């Protein structure tokens, strides 16, 4: 380029001659980014579900412990 604001005719021809290739590269890049986004979304969802299950197990364990304490206080065991 001769100047930052000037583009030569040859540069325009070069850019336009590879337009389809650039367009395909851009589409592929967007598709890859979308796939990465979906992978990240799936990972977040999986971790959230596992955390919810863990919290439920943890709550059940707390209930079990509380029940054991109550029963032991009543001398059932």
Describe what this molecule looks like in 3D.
The chain is mainly alpha-helical. It has one domain (9-73). The chain contains two helices and no strands. It is rod-shaped, with a radius of gyration of 31 Å. The model has no long low-confidence stretch (mean pLDDT 80).
Question: What's a concise summary of this model?
Answer:
This protein has 77 residues and is mainly alpha-helical.
Could you give the topology of this structure?
Elements: H1 9-17, H2 19-73
Structural class: mainly alpha
Q: How many domains make up the 3D coordinates?
A: 1
Q: Please estimate the helix content.
A: over 70%
The pLDDT mean sits at 80
Instruction: Supply the number of helical segments.
Output: 2
Cα-atom radius of gyration = 31 Å
Largest sheet: none
Strand percentage lies at under 5%
Contiguous runs where pLDDT drops below 50 for at least 5 residues: none
Descriptive tags:
about 80 residues, mainly alpha, 2 helices
């Amino acid at each position: 380029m001769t100047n930052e604001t000037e583009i030569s005719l040859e540069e325009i021809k070069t850019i336009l001659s590879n337009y389809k290739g650039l367009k395909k590269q851009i589409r592929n890049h967007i598709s890859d980014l979308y796939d990465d986004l979906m992978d990240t979304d799936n990972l977040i969802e999986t971790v959230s579900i596992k955390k919810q299950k863990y919290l439920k197990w943890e709550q059940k364990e707390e209930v079990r412990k509380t029940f054991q304490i109550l029963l032991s206080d009543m001398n059932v065991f």
